[in-house]
């Protein structure tokens, strides 16, 4: 169960969660308040941003509490591992994409590494735990064969995977490396009758380019609303950050931007 936050702490969590907000706070915080903020930041997927800001603020300005210092040390070690894991996933994702291209299978990586590269000034603010590859549904069979040839084994049931258009692959020598192959970014079959986002739709949105702000915004909204019901701050922040990208690209059709 998440530790509750006071209204002042909730406001501070939003400041810590915003990658573009300055690394500062308005006054002293107790160790218990910081522990609650860290727990909530971890749940909401914004812990890497908060840890970076705490490092920039400096440990000398943090409460001198042994339990807090121990907790921070452990979280920082985990963040370092998460950054390394993201780099390793990116390597395998690039390797699979090259193999798909060699077989003539059109594909694109979506979400994790693309959001980290396009939306965040500090890539370590946005680690990811898998690589999502999107292909046309007609190419799923051939794409699955390519991923298998790259040293991965199917970890999801084949019948269910075909129904969801989502295939989960684990690296044979390192089961922490997860590749997800998608024929559509909307997996719920009932919802997909009303809302669909696949490879061809994104090609149309991109208009001959790659990873345009318009396609990133579409992916972010479908992912946050359709897959996760906006249950984490990270999802809201990424939608706002893509809106800002769209505004810079086409200021005449700017979105009215809420402040996160």
Tell me the total number of β-strands: 5
Q: Give helix and strand order, one letter per element, not per position.
A: HHHHEHEHEHEEHHHH
Structural class: alpha+beta
Ranges where pLDDT stays below 50 over 5 or more residues in a row are: none
Q: For the largest sheet, list the strands in their spatial order.
A: 1-2-5-4-3
Shape: globular
Helix content: 40-55%
Mean pLDDT rating: 93
How would you characterize the largest beta sheet? 5 strands, mixed
Question: Over all CA atoms, what is the radius of gyration?
Answer: 20 Å
Strand content: 5-15%
Distance between the termini: 24 Å
Structure description:
This protein is an alpha+beta fold and 260 residues long. It has eleven helices and five strands. The protein has helices at residues 7-17, 31-43, 47-57, 66-102, 112-119, 140-149, 158-164, 189-192, 199-206, 213-227, 233-249, and strands spanning 107-110, 131-135, 152-154, 166-171, 178-182. A hairpin with a 6-residue loop joins strand 4 and strand 5. The longest helix is centred in the N-terminal third of the chain and has 37 residues, at 66-102. The protein is globular.
């Amino acid at each position: 169960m998440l530790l509750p936050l006071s209204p002042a702490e909730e406001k501070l969590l939003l400041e810590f969660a915003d990658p573009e907000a300055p690394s500062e706070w308005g006054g002293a915080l107790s160790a218990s308040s910081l522990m609650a903020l860290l727990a909530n930041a971890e749940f909401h997927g914004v812990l890497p941003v908060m840890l970076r800001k705490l490092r920039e603020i400096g440990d000398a300005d943090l409460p001198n509490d042994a339990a807090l210092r121990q907790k921070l040390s452990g979280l920082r070690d985990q963040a370092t591992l998460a950054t390394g894991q993201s780099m390793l996933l990116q390597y395998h994702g690039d390797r699979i994409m090259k193999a798909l291209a060699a077989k003539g299978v059109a594909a694109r990586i979506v979400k994790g590494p693309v959001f980290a590269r396009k939306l965040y000034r500090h890539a370590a603010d946005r680690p990811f735990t898998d690589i999502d590859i999107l292909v046309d549904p007609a190419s799923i069979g051939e794409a699955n064969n390519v991923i298998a040839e790259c040293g991965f084994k199917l970890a999801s049931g084949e019948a269910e995977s075909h129904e969801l258009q989502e295939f989960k692959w684990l690296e044979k020598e390192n089961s922490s490396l997860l590749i997800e192959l998608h024929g559509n970014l909307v997996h719920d079959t009932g919802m997909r009758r009303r809302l669909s986002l696949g490879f061809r739709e994104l090609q149309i949105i991109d208009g001959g380019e790659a990873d345009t702000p318009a396609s990133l915004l579409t992916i972010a909204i479908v992912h946050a609303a359709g897959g996760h019901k906006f249950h984490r701050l990270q999802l809201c922040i990424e939608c706002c950050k893509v809106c800002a990208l769209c505004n810079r690209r086409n200021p005449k059709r700017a979105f009215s931007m809420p402040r996160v």
